[in-house]
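Protocol step 4 of 6: record predicted structures for both targets in the notebook before any analysis. Target 1:
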Amino acid sequence: MAERRIYLKEWRKFAGKTQAQVVSAMQGFDDPNLPTTEASLSRLENGKQQYSERVLLALADVYGCQPWELIGRNPLKEGKVIDMMIHLNAREQERVMAYIEGLKAANSGD
């Protein structure tokens, strides 16, 4: 099984936070299972320490993203369309998808 790529460091940088700021925010959750030092956060970011669901939930809260994004999406490489889609309601997302499908269909005739 292929190892999953995590993007904890990229999300921290995307959020414009230092490791010290993240560790300080983690203290507000009052949970001893969350990173309590910059060193422990660094180990998580570098894949040298296992992460838990609780860690992903807390970091997502601090970074303003969804927990799954920390594992599956590099915010420093993906575009604005994906970022905007997340903030749309279901009806708006359907309309955007229909528009994109229409663009694809129109371009397939080129």
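Target 2:
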Amino acid sequence: MPNKDLASKLRFYRKSKKLTQKDVADHLNITPQAYQRYESQTNTNEPNIDNLKKLSTLFDINLSELIDVKENDKEKFSLKDAEVLMFSDKEGWDELPEERKKEIMRELSDLADFYIEKDKRTKGKK
């Protein structure tokens, strides 16, 4: 049975690192076609544990982020994941110093907290 979750994660992390499937295949010392099957939603081929370890190192993530380790059946995304999802297409984002990126993410988090609290107060007044 295909592991669609793993395929999606592999695609997500590869793209977040701006790597091609060939880049990842070369890192794993496998053919690009073999790696392409790892990302396939319909294929049953999955990386062995050694390749999973290599992938987690390449993507700079914990192995548990690739394999099915969930808390309360809900995936937890890191700040880095949010950064990739929100800013990977913004010109100049990659050139910002890490401290500035963290500052922007904190400010956005504070802004989200403000609006969540504002909505709670508004609902409480009704």
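Step 5 preliminary note on target 2. The chain has a mean pLDDT of 80. Helices lie at 4-16, 21-28, 32-39, 49-58, 79-87, 98-125.
Proceed to step 6 after PI sign-off.
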